[in-house]
Every structure is written in structure tokens, then in C-alpha cells.
From TrEMBL:
Pfam families the record matches: KH_NusA_1st, KH_NusA_2nd, NusA_N
UniProt keyword terms in alphabetical order: Cytoplasm, RNA-binding, Transcription, Transcription antitermination, Transcription regulation, Transcription termination
Domain S1 motif, first and last residues per copy: 139-204
Known role: Participates in both transcription termination and antitermination.
Complex formation: Monomer. Binds directly to the core enzyme of the DNA-dependent RNA polymerase and to nascent RNA.
Species for this entry: Solitalea canadensis (strain ATCC 29591 / DSM 3403 / JCM 21819 / LMG 8368 / NBRC 15130 / NCIMB 12057 / USAM 9D)
A cellular component annotation (GO) from this entry: cytosol
Biological-process GO terms, alphabetical: DNA-templated transcription termination; transcription antitermination
Protein name: Transcription termination/antitermination protein NusA
Encoding gene per record: nusA
Length: 413
């Protein structure tokens, strides 16, 4: 091969491969050319492939034993004297004939095939490198740019142009992105499909929230505060249990920051997701009480064997404990590992009474209006009257009144 031929220029595809270092590229080059030698001569064991890693120059030298004319048995390893004299007139029988193999001697078809093989090998290395790189980054935050938005997923490019996928299922419901937007997410899963790396990123995974806390709260990053567990209903609510390894540090206060300064950025990133930060404890009763925040619990009964907790609250706290869409009680259960049931506290009879409007899904509104017309605004005020008296004072049928009383009684049983 002519020493003037620079393979990096000859095989211009090299320029587009970002993640392959030069030594690896040169090693692949040598393999490809040795393969060409084997196809042409049957062996490459008597050939030296010399690579210049600085400028990409490559030389191939072939060594054969000089034999007497007519006594050569293997053209790949031996050369007759007459032919050897053409290489070097001073050669004699028994000498080593060393000749340089030129690129042109392989032929145009072989060169094109080698070029294709080279590109293919480098692309495989590129894909393998991306896979290994991201396999080691599972659970880490990545920042990319939205390249294309589809119905079921978003294509994101990282700073090196690698493709990342953000499926709809891994997006916060309030997320809205368009091409060119910057996006932060956590690497959730990396797999090889048909020899192509598939990198799935997520904004709904608990790990994403954990990494955001590590970025915003130095004490967590430094290991002074530990995040014990995170549970989320993406875009709605999250509960984070934290523990401090230094008695002088309030873990909840450190996570929230002065006037919410630290947690505010996290909430904004998560599209105004409500985040409850609670102090972790091994005391199950106290842990459940904290997990049901912001509701205030009156009493709690725990069955350790069944991992079940019965929680009693004042009537005005029940809806807080359950939360919008049941998110609060569901997350509290996931955080603590207990199945939690909420009950109205029966000790305070006055507070236990329930407004009739709360039964609107079971009792027709016109019936409720009829009862209100006689001064009965709550369940207990209706139950205090007999069936006969209710029939007398209202325009309701006896059967209707009995059905209403049954619904109201079941509330207090």
C-alpha cells in the first residue's frame, strides 16, 4: 500500500463516529486488512500490518522464503528465485523475500467490500459503547433536547446526539414539550434490541425525584441525610421519608429549605406535584401518623401480623387523610407498608354528625330538600325523629323515609 494513502481520509465515515477512540479504530483497521490478506493469499501469518496511529498511514509487508525454480510448493509462503529476483535482484535461494502490498493489488471490489465491513464494524462498536455507557448510568439524571414528539413517545437527543426515548407512560400528565425544548429525566432502562441500544428515560420514576433532591439538598448529596423511601402519584402527590445521621440536622427542614426555597424548584420541575417530606421512624404508629399528613389523627390501632392499621380521625380530618382522588391514603400505605383504613372518631358525638349533602350520591336531592325544609340539615337530626313523625311533617312516602333512615344508620354502624 502506498505510504501516501491515509486511511482516515480514504474511509471518511470515520469522522462521524464520536465514541470510538483512535487505538480501537486502528485495531479494527488491522483486522479488516488481515481478513483481506487471508482471502487473497490464504494466510496472513507471514504478513506485517504496520499502523501509524498519529496520521492513519498503514503499510503491509509480506515475507516469503526464496526457493529454487520449480521447487516452490506453497505460493503463499514461498517464492521461486526467478520471481524473487523481480522483487530484489540480490536475493538468493534461502533468503527472505520481503515485498510491500499495495492497496491497488487487492482490486476495486475487495476494497469496496473492506470499506463496507469497516463501517459496519465501527458502527457495532459505536452501538456497544452507547449501550455500556448508559447501562452504567441507570438511575442518573440526563439532560437532552426534544428532537421529535410523537403520540406515544418523545425522541430526545443528548449532548452527543445519542437517541433517548421518553414514553408517554413515563411522562408527568401535565408535561408538554415541543421540538427544541430542554428536558430533564432519569435513565430508567437500557436494553439491546436487534443489536440497537434502546435507552428509556423517565420523569415519573421515584429515582427522578430522589436525584432532584440530591441536586437541591447538599446534606443528602453529602450523605448527612438519607432518603429512606419515595412513593409518587406523578403530577399529583409524592411522599418522601428522610432520616438524619446528625442529631443537629433537622432532615425535613433541610429538605424544604428556608421558606420552601429548596423544595420549590423540585415542585416546579414536577409540574406542581405536592411533596410531603416526613421524618422516618421505626415506630410504626408514629410513622403512619406522619405519613397521613396533613391530616391529624386521634387514635390508631395496628395489627402487625396482617400489616393493617385502623386510623380514627375527627370528621373534618377524614377527607384530608384520604386526599384528592384517594392519593394521600394510597401513598401513605405504600410508604409505610401497611393497609390503612380510616374511620370517623365516635368519641365526639357532636362532631360525628354528617351533613345531609354528603349523602347526595345515595339519596335524591329532592328528598334532601324536603328534609331540610323541616329543619333537618344533618343525619343525626333526621335519625332523632320517628318514621311516623317524618311522614307527618313531610310529603314523603313511608317507604322512602325508611330507605333514607337505613342509609343514614349505615353511616354510623
Amino acid at each position: 500500500m502506498s505510504s501516501n494513502i491515509n486511511l482516515i481520509d480514504s474511509f471518511s465515515e470515520f469522522k462521524q463516529f464520536k465514541n470510538i477512540d483512535r487505538p480501537t479504530m486502528m485495531s479494527v483497521l488491522e483486522d479488516v486488512f488481515r481478513s483481506m490478506l487471508r482471502r487473497k493469499y490464504g494466510t496472513d501469518e507471514n504478513c506485517d500490518v504496520i499502523l501509524n496511529t498519529e496520521n492513519g498511514d498503514l503499510e503491509i509487508w509480506r515475507t516469503r522464503k526464496v526457493m529454487e525454480d520449480g521447487f516452490s510448493e506453497d505460493d503463499a509462503l514461498e517464492v521461486e528465485l526467478a520471481e524473487a529476483k523481480l522483487i530484489d535482484p540480490d536475493l538468493e535461494v534461502g533468503d527472505d523475500a520481503i515485498e510491500q502490498i499495495t492497496l491497488e493489488s487487492f482490486g476495486r471490489r475487495a476494497i469496496l467490500a473492506a470499506r463496507q465491513t469497516l463501517v459496519s464494524r465501527i458502527m457495532e462498536l459505536e452501538k456497544d459503547d452507547i449501550y455500556k455507557k448508559y447501562k452504567d448510568r441507570v438511575g442518573e439524571i440526563v439532560v437532552g433536547e426534544v428532537y421529535q414528539v410523537w403520540k406515544k413517545e418523545i425522541l430526545v437527543l443528548d449532548e452527543e446526539g445519542n437517541e433517548l426515548l421518553l414514553p408517554k407512560t413515563e411522562q408527568i400528565p401535565a408535561d408538554f414539550y415541543k421540538k427544541g425544548d430542554s428536558i430533564r429525566a432519569v435513565v430508567a432502562k437500557v436494553e439491546m434490541i436487534n443489536n440497537n441500544p434502546k435507552i428509556i428515560i423517565s420523569r415519573t420514576a421515584p429515582a427522578f425525584l430522589q436525584r432532584l433532591f440530591e441536586l437541591e439538598v447538599p446534606e443528602i448529596f453529602d450523605g448527612l441525610i438519607s432518603i429512606k423511601k419515595i412513593v409518587r402519584e406523578p403530577g399529583e402527590r409524592a411522599k418522601v421519608a428522610v432520616e438524619s445521621f446528625d442529631d443537629r440536622i433537622d432532615p425535613v427542614g433541610a429538605c424544604v429549605g428556608m421558606k420552601g426555597s429548596r423544595i420549590h424548584g423540585i415542585v416546579r420541575e414536577l409540574r406542581n406535584e405536592n411533596i410531603d417530606v416526613i421524618n422516618y421512624t421505626n415506630n410504626a404508629s408514629l410513622y403512619i401518623t406522619r405519613a397521613l399528613s396533613p391530616a391529624k389523627i386521634t387514635t390508631i390501632k395496628i395489627n402487625e401480623d396482617k400489616k393493617h392499621a385502623s386510623v380514627f380521625l375527627k370528621p373534618d380530618q377524614v377527607s384530608l387523610a384520604i386526599g384528592k382522588g384517594g392519593h394521600n391514603i394510597k401513598l401513605a400505605g405504600k410508604l409505610t407498608g401497611y393497609e390503612i383504613d380510616v374511620f370517623r372518631d365516635a368519641e365526639d358525638e357532636d362532631e360525628e354528625d354528617v351533613d345531609l349533602e354528603e349523602f347526595s350520591d345515595e339519596i335524591d336531592s329532592w328528598v334532601i330538600d324536603e328534609l331540610k325544609a323541616i329543619g333537618c340539615d344533618s343525619a343525626k337530626s333526621v335519625l332523632a325523629l320517628s318514621v311516623a313523625e317524618l311522614v307527618k311533617r313531610t310529603d314523603l312516602e313511608e317507604e322512602t323515609i325508611k330507605e333514607v333512615l337505613q342509609v343514614l344508620r349505615s353511616e354510623f354502624e
